Automatic annotation (TrEMBL):
GO MF term (any one): oxidoreductase activity
GO cellular component: cytoplasm
Domain of life: Bacteria
Keyword terms: Oxidoreductase
Transmembrane segments: none
Organism: Pseudacidovorax intermedius
Protein name: Aldo/keto reductase
Residues of the NADP-dependent oxidoreductase domain: 13-305
């Protein structure tokens, strides 16, 4: 596996986003299937595993911890706090964004327990809580480093301005934000700010939540609780227009001798050596397909043509509904 760098960590050029083993896309796979995917990734050379307190309200961290604990020295472990499940008075767990220092410390300590480890290599603020100055949240996270609970800090879904404010308090090793052919928001300002500060960029949803695989043709078949259902790009208004873009993209992938998913990942890797995509999957076969993209050497014109086919001008619809857009701090292209 080719490698890239996040601060002092040398990691696989493609990591594994573990979220959908426990969360977000309808009924998750069985714990046994989750274990198969995690161990297959480790065996294939993946050395960057990404989870969060939010995923499955802790279940994902428990899965990653149980399966990978005995291999702990072989990989870089990433998790996130500041957005987690909180049980209400009615007994129902709900997602809550809370960046207060005491909450972040509690989130981290809970994550350490679930992961079965003494230290998290890269700890992200999952969302900036806009009621709390970013300097206060990052300040407390820096004290987690002083306490030996965390090795490096990251931010997720932040603007260039917020990144610079945070970096003035403590070095930020990585920014994690959605980035793919169909979500180009990082190109507005965040990628440049990351390069200015020496911060790596970790791209989540690099396959556009399965859109770029070409396999998601019927949104109506998605589970009722699938997080894609309320996303505008997957709506009845916008998704047919987006599907129409795939015929040219699939033809280009065939011309290049790879799958659409591999072309999408190869395009992302070609955008800079500081970019590390973390696709997620519940399938070992799809995992191996994704990882093979790191070995592709595609001509520059193929990469350029892919970018010309699917981009912020050709894709229909904003990436998030209004409420979710308000919760992130990223620069956004108009939908």
């Amino acid at each position: 596996m080719h490698t890239r760098r996040i601060a002092n960590f040398e990691v696989s050029a493609i990591g594994l986003g573990c979220m959908n083993l426990s969360h977000a896309y309808g009924v998750p796979p069985s714990p046994e299937q989750g274990e198969r995917v995690l161990l297959a990734a480790l065996d294939a050379g993946v050395t960057l595993f990404d989870t969060a307190a939010l995923y499955g309200f802790g279940a994902n961290e428990e899965l990653v911890g149980r399966v990978l604990k005995k291999h702990r020295q072989q990989f870089t472990l990433c998790s996130k706090g500041g957005m987690a499940g909180v049980k209400g008075e009615d007994g129902v767990m709900r997602r809550v964004i809370d960046g207060r220092p005491a909450t972040l410390r509690r989130n981290c300590e809970d994550s350490l327990r679930r992961l079965g480890t003494d230290v998290i290599d890269l700890y992200y603020l999952h969302r900036w809580d806009k009621k709390v100055p970013i300097e206060d949240s990052v300040g407390e996270m820096s004290r987690l480093i002083e306490d030996g609970k965390v090795r490096a800090l990251g931010l997720s879904e932040v603007s260039a301005g917020t990144l610079r404010k945070a970096a003035a308090v403590h070095p930020i090793a990585a920014v994690q934000t959605e980035y793919s052919l169909w979500t180009r928001n990082p190109e507005i300002a965040v990628l440049a700010a990351c390069r200015e500060l020496g911060t790596a960029f970790v791209a989540f949803s690099p396959l556009a939540r399965a859109y770029l695989t070409g396999r998601l043709t019927d949104v109506a078949a998605l589970d009722a609780k699938d997080i894609r259902r309320p996303m505008p790009r997957f709506s009845a208004e916008h998704y047919p227009r987006n599907l129409a873009l795939l015929s040219g993209f699939e033809a280009l992938a065939q011309e290049a001798g790879c799958t659409p998913a591999q072309l999408a990942l190869a395009w992302l890797l070609a955008q800079g050596e500081d970019i590390i995509p973390i696709p997620g999957t519940t399938s070992v076969d799809h995992l191996h397909e994704d990882l093979a993209a790191a070995d592709l050497k595609l001509p520059a014109d193929v990469i350029a043509r892919a970018g010309d086919l699917i981009n912020q001008r050709t894709v229909s619809g904003p990436r998030y509904p209004a409420q979710a857009t308000q919760e992130v701090d990223t620069e956004e292209f108009p939908g």
